[in-house]
């Protein structure tokens, strides 16, 4: 099981820690569990279970993937890193027991070993434009591109990350290796989870169970492309993914909300988003951003205008809210490919 240590929310000044992530470099220990999958069938077996195309994932490469239920709703999200014959899956610690249980139940006759490595390794993330300099000074190989993976001397791996901030790298390294101190000694400011969460929200990167509910499908949360491969099949929930991608649009979309609120009374995950008296969405992660102020991720109905006057939260947590129009991709309102093709055939 994942290590039960409570990780610090901040290390003295969460806003300064955010600024370091944006302007120089900071390091944070993440609340992530790690599953190691080895064995001759590791890639072909995972390919049948995950939404991502991993059957030929090259050694030294990373990606992202989901596990869906039979109706295409998101159950688990994970980072995937393939190095030296082992696939490392990292996911939110509270999601780890369910993911591990599912994977072990699906082994059957496949030549794979599924092992919980969370007690052995920690997930550290260095964020900021000086990330390559910090890694090099700490003796860590610097992956050339996002999603490249390199071995770390003494054990573990480093994965160049596409978010958050201007540059980032995730390290999956032995807990007893003193890596947090080595990275701070190499120039990274020590940071807590609040700083990382603020940049995660800015990056519009959802967290399962916080920014999603039991109805969430991948198309609502920007996971199509990064974590879902649309042309592969043979995984649970694939029919829903293909149908929505080709013939429809998801009922909701992930947006960034700007909140008109102080520090004391902010909405919490699961609170409603209301337009007038009509519920139109749900609040996800809420943070104080060093530049944007109080902001939140939210799933809102696609029919909600981008300039709508909204309220997020209830009672003393209710705050006026507005959608950041830059958080909605321009192509989001384009017709679905299959629907457009069908319409062109109509007289």
TrEMBL record:
InterPro entries the record matches: GCVT_N, TrmE/GcvT-like, YgfZ/GCV_T_CS, YgfZ/GcvT
Keyword Transit peptide belongs to the record: yes
Keyword Metal-binding: no
Disordered: region residues: 314-347
Gene Ontology process terms (BP): iron-sulfur cluster assembly
Keywords: Transit peptide
Biased composition, class Basic and acidic residues, residue ranges: 314-325
NCBIfam families cross-referenced by the UniProt entry: ygfZ_signature (TIGR03317)
Name the record gives this protein: tRNA-modifying protein YgfZ
């Amino acid at each position: 099981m994942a290590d039960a240590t409570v990780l610090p929310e901040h290390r003295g000044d969460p806003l300064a820690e955010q600024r370091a992530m944006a302007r120089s470099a900071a390091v944070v220990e993440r609340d992530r569990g790690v599953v190691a999958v080895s064995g001759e069938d590791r890639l072909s077996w995972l390919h049948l279970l995950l939404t991502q195309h991993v059957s030929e994932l090259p050694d030294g490469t990373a990606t992202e993937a989901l596990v869906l239920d039979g109706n295409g709703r998101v159950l688990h999200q994970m980072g995937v890193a393939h190095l030296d014959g082992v696939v490392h899956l990292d996911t939110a610690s509270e999601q780890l027991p369910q993911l591990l249980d599912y994977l072990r139940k699906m082994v059957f006759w496949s030549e794979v070993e599924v092992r919980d490595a969370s007690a052995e390794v920690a997930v550290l993330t260095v964020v900021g434009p000086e990330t390559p300099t910090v890694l090099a000074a700490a003796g860590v190989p610097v992956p050339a591109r996002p999603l490249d993976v390199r071995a770390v001397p003494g054990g573990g791996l480093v994965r160049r990350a596409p978010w958050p901030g201007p540059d980032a790298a995730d390290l999956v390294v032995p807990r007893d290796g003193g890596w947090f101190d080595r990275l701070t000694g190499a120039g990274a400011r020590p940071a807590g989870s609040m700083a990382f969460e603020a940049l995660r929200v800015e990056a519009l990167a959802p967290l399962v169970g916080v920014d999603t509910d039991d109805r969430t499908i991948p198309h609502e949360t920007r996971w199509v492309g990064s974590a879902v491969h649309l042309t592969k099949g043979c995984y649970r929930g694939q029919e829903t993914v293909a149908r929505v991608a080709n013939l429809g649009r998801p009922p909701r979309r992930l947006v960034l909300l700007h909140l008109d609120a102080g520090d004391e009374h902010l909405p919490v995950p699961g609170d409603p988003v209301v337009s007038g008296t009509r519920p139109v969405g749900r609040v996800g992660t809420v943070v104080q951003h060093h530049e944007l102020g109080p902001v939140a991720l939210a799933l809102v109905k696609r029919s909600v205008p981008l300039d709508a006057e909204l309220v997020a939260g209830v009672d003393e947590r209710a705050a006026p809210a507005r959608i950041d129009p830059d958080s909605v991709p321009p192509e989001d309102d384009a017709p679905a490919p299959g629907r457009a093709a069908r319409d062109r055939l109509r007289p």
